[in-house]
Please model this.
Amino acid sequence: MNLNITGHHVEITPAIREYATSKIGKIKRHFENVIDVQIILSVEKLKQKAEATVHMSGKDVFVECEDENLYAAIDTLIDKLDRQVMKHKEKLADRRHDVSGQHPVAAE
Model:
């Protein structure tokens, strides 16, 4: 898994990089087919913004989150990403366990 963390109007300190890296491990535990993760952290006046694009096998997921605290924005971002990744994983599992062998839309 490639992880790229960049900052707009904010310096990415080793503490922030370590925090984001440890949190992104949660997604890696839930879905092993994550290819690439791009995280952009930015500051606009009093708002701290975190954006992430996750490239998985079969889908790209984009999530953004704003908060007054950068660490809280990263936490919320990871929670949103985790929900979307788990949803994608469940969809893949549902397609695999479809006994008809047809695409669910074609079966109607």
User: Anything to note?
Assistant: Residues 45 and 56 are 33 Å apart (CA to CA). The chain has a mean pLDDT of 85. The first helix runs from residue 14 to 30. The chain has two helices and four strands.
